Here is the input.
Amino acid sequence: RTLIGTGGWSGAAVTHRGDWTGDAMEDVVAIVAGELRVYPNLGTGTLGSAIKVLTGLPTDSKLVNAGDINRDGHPDLLVQHSNKLYMYAGKSAPTPTVAAPVIVGNSGWDVMSLSAP
Here is the structure.
């Protein structure tokens, strides 16, 4: 076990899987205090400074990076909140971004748990 962060992670929804910075290394993605952030993998067992990608998400959002859902070569995210499931299509390198959300699950999602391989 290696400590990679020392604060600001309380209540965070965290996932990985996907190169969001174009350096061929998987980065960490988190929703912290309603902000979607990418933490670059520095390849040294540490993370770089957070890159703020999106703000205004509900603080109880659940998050999973399910890979390249739309097959465009970039990682995508599934975010669960307000009893719905949303897909945020990602764009990587050098500054990660996400497209406007698309509802992929219309109801019943508050009782579900998200997971990905």
In short: The first strand starts at residue 13 and ends at 15.
